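Q: Entry one of two.
A:
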Amino acid sequence: MKKSMRVCSHPLKLFLMSTVLWIGLSGCADQPTGADLVLTNGKIITVDETLPEAAALAVRDGRISAVGSVEEIAASI
């Protein structure tokens, strides 16, 4: 006697696989980024008298978008 193949032999397995796939893909949505490049722990000499030296900078679209301490730049991205 032949056994017939069922499309879903294990409904729980199908549910778990679908859930894992859904959770995995939910993180793939377009998320705006604060910077294309972040450089930290450096010694950056600026020409600004109020901030003569900085430790980090952020670059977005090929331009420097922020300069400051590592904490300030981390908070802005």
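Q: Entry two of two.
A:
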Amino acid sequence: MAKAKILDIKERTKWVAPDKSVQTLVVTYETAKGYRGTIRDIPEDASEGDIWDQIRRHMKTKEHLLGTEKELE
């Protein structure tokens, strides 16, 4: 798996009901190969390890596909 760097972490208010909201995180990252991704709705109390696990899962498929070619019909 390639290296990744966290570029930005923002707090976001997510409305779950008309009178109830929760704070979540939006994390933007970039891989060494140049892929940029954004993960939304991470719980505000997530640990650093949880955030890196979500980044790892999010980029797994995309990193695998980068640089591959396939002829489409």
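A: Comment on entry two: Helices lie at 48-65. The chain has a mean pLDDT of 89.
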